[in-house]
Design brief:
The protein has 106 residues and is α/β, with parallel strands linked by helices. It has four helices and five strands, in the order βαβαβαββα. It has helices spanning 11-16, 32-47, 63-68, 95-105, and strands at 4-5, 22-27, 53-58, 76-81, 84-90.
């Protein structure tokens, strides 16, 4: 499974109403650290298969979702489980750290 592009219009459906945990990455094309973690998130989405969903929200195109979540800086990562935020973190991190964070949250 690869990452899923989520918009303001699809946020509730793809994230809050998901039947599996969702890692949400708020990012932007111009953000260097966002580009650093992008490949790791793609790999993790594939490695976890259907056990989690990795959703990417472009904050430039979808400001409402970012504002609703209180995102002030990017990359901002949230884990949703059963429609609720169970964990969040900001900034880039190596793949191993992201995987550890996901494992401890789901």
């Amino acid at each position: 499974m690869s990452t899923v592009a989520v918009t303001d219009d699809t946020f509730d459906e793809e994230v809050k109403n998901s039947d599996i945990p969702v890692v949400v990455d708020f990012w932007a094309e111009w953000c260097g650290p966002c580009k650093q973690i992008g490949p790791a998130l793609e790999e993790l989405a594939a490695e976890y298969g259907g056990r989690i969903k990795v959703a990417k929200v472009d904050v430039d195109s979808n400001p409402n979702s970012a504002a609703a979540m209180g995102v002030r800086g990017i990359p901002a990562l949230f884990i949703f489980k059963d429609g609720q935020v169970v964990s969040n973190r900001a900034g880039a991190a190596p793949k191993a750290a992201l995987q550890s964070w996901i494992d401890s949250s789901i």
